[in-house]
Amino acid sequence: MSALKPIFIIHSLCGSRRPPSWSPSIYKCLLYNLYTITIAFLVSSLALSQMIGMALNADASNISDDIYLFLVQFVSCFKLLSLVVNRNNIVDLIVTLGQEPHQPLDDVEMNIHEKFDRLCRFNTNTYTSFVVFTVSNFLLLSLFTSFNKRELTFQAWLPFEVNMAPIVFYLSYLHQMLAMILGAVIHVALDTIVWYLLINITCQIRILENRLTNITNERKATLKLCIRHHECIYNFAAAVNETFKFTIFIQFSASTLTVCFTLIRLTSISANNLEFIKMLLFMSGMLAQLYLYCSHGHLITLKSQEIVYEMFQTNLMELSNDIKKSLLIMMRRTTRPIIIIVMNLFPLNIDSFVSVSIFIVMTKYANSSMFYDYLLFQILKTAYSAYNFLEQT
Questions:
Q1: Integer-rounded Cα radius of gyration of the chain
Q2: Per-residue pLDDT reduced to its tens digit, 260-285
Q3: This prediction's pTM
Q4: Residues of 83-121 as b/e, b for ≥16 C-beta within 10 angstroms?
Q5: Which residue ranges does UniProt annotate as crossing the membrane (predicted)?
């Protein structure tokens, strides 16, 4: 659980989790609720002003330059809403991991748990560092360009004239920078908690595999524990999927569009331009988000399919018929692996990431017949997959 400490700190910063030490005090609770409302106002007001600004902008080229920034800010608003609405569900999921049968029982299981805990910490620290680096570069570039020219970083509609007085410009500029930083913190908060839960599903499967190797005729209690643990893992994965499926769908949709618009913008900028570096970092962050979601979901599916192989590592011939029948029931269950499916549309796996990546690259050739051929192929492929799925069910 040590991997949760930095994640909880980030959640407290973005207003989605009140520090436990503040709970006994009514005044501190009210103060933190006010803090959450303030953050929600700052982030959503920037997204709203960007959206109105694009709607009032008649220049299509400027809209394409601004829309990728708006999409990121819009997703941060939705992620904050998801964190606040699902606050109790997230707590329940975390508490479940600390209860039986998920809790490690011996040194071997503790080592397995610690291994995945280190992976969680590495993910959180690396992703947070990258976001801090990207936002810092964005801020510095904005200070040396937009701020010096007395221009706002984001093209947005405001109900007053920014250049009316210096204090008006400074406050408007500060609002945009604060909203951008808070939006980045919100992205890190939700992404890291989802990755933590996905990694722990893989961890639980690995612990279950270890328990399966310890089944003997004299240790029937271990068999009962394995059966219950196996069922609990499936239920836990379903709960995680249900809690975050719409949020991940919005993340995927917006990130794909963001990378597409960023890639189109990159083709019109010189590689020696500072703007090119900023947008390259921006696009790298979006692709990293998509990849980490897909890779963790892919690992869950692979590991859940490997459970049956661990069953064959036990001394099946020496086990009683009752134990063999119980293991057979578990084997039949493992023929249906754990798949994190986003809104019943697509699974979280490497194939989905590759499909998104191919689509992003193809946007560069949007005016060519090759692009439309690819779109037709994807439509036919999706229709055929849906037909097979319906036929099997």
A1: 24
A2: 777 777 777 776 777 777 778 888 88
A3: 0.86
A4: beebeeebeebbeebeeebbeeeeeebeebbeebbebbb
A5: 30-55, 67-85, 126-144, 179-199, 246-264, 276-294, 338-362
